[in-house]
Amino acid sequence: MQKITVLSGGVGGATFLQGLLHGIAAGSLPGVAAEAEVTVVANTADDIWLHGLKVCPDLDTVMYTLGEGIDAERGWGRSEETWSAKEELERYGVEPTWFGLGDRDIATHLVRTQMLEAGYPLSEVTQALCRRWSSAPSWGGVTLLPMSDDRVETHVAIADAQAPSGKRVVHFQEYWVRLHAEVPAEALVFVGLAESTPGPGVLAAIAEADLVIVPPSNPVVSIGTIVGVPGIRDALRSTAAPVVGLSPIVGDTHVRGMAHQMLTCIDVEVSAAGVARHYGARAQGGILDGWLVDERDAHHVAAVEAAGVACAAVPLMMVDPAATAVMAAEAIRLVRPS
Ligand code: GDP
Ligand code: CA
């Protein structure tokens, strides 16, 4: 296999990519060439304008992780970060104050915003930003593509007793970063998604791949939005490559993040089988040929198979790149038995 395409959110997707690249470099992935090329189609529905800056959290998490510039402990933002600009903005009383905009990170957003305002599409801006990071040995020749050049934003409707309608709609970042996903999400609104088009190279990366992987990213606000860009679901359904996913739900809840709340909001059962059914079998109009569940969820295997998706239960905790590489190898074995 020469061409692997991975759909990705932020931390879950980036952590999986580290393991995949580890496996490729180590030659431990069955049938995968040492010079295999990895293309990442990243979610951009988390994007937000803050203080006049365009912030792309998932693109940046992947970029900083693969470029070794990530704060590994937090899982997002730059390493050795300082927060002077954020503190100064707070002293001016400028809202919002809840988003973690570090000084080093701001440099990325300044470059991005300047280029966007000069007329470059997000895909070209991303390519330019990646030029700096792609010399890191850990980058592994990855091509990072935004799912779309169009503005798409996930918004969340929450109950608000003070609002005349009893409801308020907040940006997904406000729901997650400020409200910690602690208030029930009543509805999700994917602003701009239905009118968006896939970014340059995205459909080709899926159509021409030898393997497509859906990593353990959030099934609703990461993978759900990528697949929701008109054209991407059809590309996943029609590619000659097998499509294999790994469950972000382990033991009937998320490992980290807020997938539980998001799945509940769209009435999908919060389990490894529930997510597999939600994605659906390719043979039946869905996007999956195979689905890995954690060993704790072995009792869900039969239900996933009954939905028409090949399934196996293996350890799915991404504790380090070597362990994650084993997950990637198992995923490949599931859809490309040797
Ligand atoms: P985000 O954009 O930063 O929220 O990251 P993603 O959407 O890419 O991934 C978030 C998902 O990754 C969550 O639903 C987590 O449950 C899942 N996740 C995080 N760590 C692990 C892990 O070690 N194993 C598995 N199976 N899932 C994980
Ligand atoms: Ca995200």
Summarize the structure.
The protein has helices at 11-26, 57-66, 84-91, 103-117, 122-133, 172-178, 202-207, 223-228, 232-238, 259-265, 272-279, 301-306, 321-335; strands spanning 3-8, 37-42, 48-50, 53-55, 143-146, 153-159, 167-171, 185-191, 211-214, 243-246, 249-250, 253-254, 290-294, 310-314. It is α/β, with parallel strands linked by helices and 338 residues long. The protein has one domain: CofD-like domains (Rossmann fold).
What does this protein structure show overall?
It holds the Pfam family CofD. GO terms for molecular function: LPPG:FO 2-phospho-L-lactate transferase activity; magnesium ion binding. InterPro entries: CofD (IPR002882), CofD-like_dom_sf (IPR038136), FbiA/CofD (IPR010115). This protein is an alpha/beta fold and 338 residues long. The protein has a single domain, classed as Rossmann fold, CATH 3.40.50. It is built from 13 helices and 14 strands. The protein has a 7-stranded parallel beta sheet with strand order 5-2-1-9-10-13-14, with helices on both faces. Strands 7-6-8 form a 3-stranded antiparallel beta sheet. Strands 3-4 form a two-stranded antiparallel sheet. Helix 12 links the parallel strand 13 and strand 14 (310-314). Helix 1 runs parallel beside helix 2 (57-66), helix 2 runs parallel beside helix 5 and helix 4 (103-117) crosses helix 5 (122-133). The chain starts with a strand and ends with a helix. The mean pLDDT is 97. It binds guanosine-5'-diphosphate (GDP) and calcium ion.
